Amino acid sequence: MEDAQLARLEDLPPAYVQALRDQNLVPLWPSLRGVLPPKIPTRQTQPTHWAYAAIKPLLLQAGELTPIEKAERRVLVLANPGHTLEKMQASSAMYLGMQLLLPGEWAPSHRHTPNAVRMVVEGEGAWTTVDGERCPMSRGDLILTPTGLWHEHGHDGTEPVIWLDVLDLPLAYYLEVSYHLNGGRQETKPGRGDNTYRRAGITPSTVFGRSGKRYPMLRYPWVDTRAALIALSDDQPALDDVQITYVNPETGDDAENILGFYAQMLRPGQTLTLPARSPACVFHLIEGGAGVEVAVQTDTPRTFTLLEADTCCAPGYTGVTLRNLSADQPAFLFMADESPLHRKLGVYEVRA
Ligand code: 1HN
Fold this sequence. Notes:
23 strands, alpha+beta
């Protein structure tokens, strides 16, 4: 049955509306369909594509215009126009930024409530120290900076290093829990999670079989992720969705609390349709090339071509079709979404 039309604000006497306003009161019924639309939510998030070829020169220019001491973090934010650029949001819960660190620069230590990850885009020689663990940064590596952990970035190499930051900042800001603390240079501690948890299925037999750390693994090297995807593809030729989830190696839980992180392999020539699900999703191309078709309902589908280091996003409740542009090489994508948040809130949905 169709929803009945409800009375509009203009249907009320202006003096009555003013009397309500004077008491900080608002009638619900004129706005009820707006906040609770039929069948499918209203989404501000628009399918949006950010080309690395356009970002990189502007980011390098930022390197000339603004010294690191004046920026703390030299980042161009990938903003979704559907949320307005000023909000600096890729989706309702996700923030994306491309960060530049030049040789010899240091981005000082701080910690904050929003969770972050870095996906390294290009350049060698940079490192990020998270909770005393010094993580080398190489193309395709995923490095966690979970809520509350100290982190700083340095660069001992010779070429600019660029990475993609993904944070749940819009959610933290909306919840009014977003703040930071500054700190001094961290002491580097021995031990690295990516060494400790090198092989799936094997963890060190520490006391109670657990390290006692909420985030035992902070760096996920791309060489291992890529090898895992190829092994999965070879092992299961009938599997369409050759995808891995970045998880906590001790518990199998999502690597972070709010956003989920994944790597996707498309076999040569493969086309893969991901069903419509409630969370918004971000796609970042690590290797190869891919077509991304976002099946927005109100419009004709939006189609993007993702070249290496390009990034795009799709709103929730929207199917996405990924197409490998090469007939003889695999393509590899990094994906981030809001699934852990939706699951915890009990609003996660897959629409077949
Ligand atoms: C942050 O701490 C970093 O540590 C990058 O590199 C981007 C965006 C918003 C808030 C904090 C970093 C950030 C950020």
